[in-house]
Amino acid sequence: MNIPSNPRDAELRRSLVETFNSAARPTRQPWRSASLIAALALASAATGALSATALAQSTPYDAEVATSLALSAARPNSVAIGEPFAVESVGTAIIELGEVPDAATGLAIRTQCMQPGTVNVTLDSTWISSFSCDGEGPGGGGGAVHPAPGPGSNTLSFVSVDETGFKAWIVWVKEPTMPQKSAQQVSELADGIVFRDEYLAAFNRFVGCMSAAGYFVAAIDPTALILNYSISEDAVRSGADELCYESQFMGVDAAWQTQNEDSSETTQMLRECLVRQGIEPAEPRVDIDSQLEAAGIDPEACLVYG
Question: Is the pTM of this model over 0.85?
Fold first, then answer.
């Protein structure tokens, strides 16, 4: 699922879906789930020290595992195009990807840290991302889909000046077309302000859309300023959540959370987190975020552990 464009509440709560299974808009971090942690370990054992090697040269089972891991960075119902690549390296690794396959819209990259440090990722000498590894042992990393580059051969590079150990799984993908906003949602957003009745109406359309797709949405507290609710992991994996959320609710939800971020439940939890650290919290949410960053406090930890 995709993060609404601005609201910090949505970004924070969406990042916790694998912990809470909350549909308050999770970000896609499937490497945190138990199934993918197991898959990462399995892939490690299956592929061994493959460095910038196409898994087509290995066994079909290895390719299946690597494709699954790489696709975990993409949106639901994305399709892998061509053979996956895998890399296990310390410091620097370079992968010759070749030309972009027909129909591919992007390059899915899933990474896993093996040692502390930071790795910069470039595609054809253009920086596209970085990932940091903290602590000891496997973990960390991340995943994303990057737009397919232009014609010609392509080179993917992982570069770390501090000799960071890492693994990565890569595959070209075709992602589905993004859902369009419904006419009702477009109308609710037209004046630049979202009212409570519009917010509730959009949420109810989302619930109806999910119900029509065969999935249940459980509202935790329908009277709360910002609604919290839960859905099944199957609803996320099937793509129904993305379709219903983006078409019926995402824009309205993002605007409402932005309008009310200073008084939201999430902001209050972050304030309490600062107080526990002996820091007097600021009033505007944007200043609270700055305080957390300056103190080196992970906002997710505040929400997970209270």
Answer: no
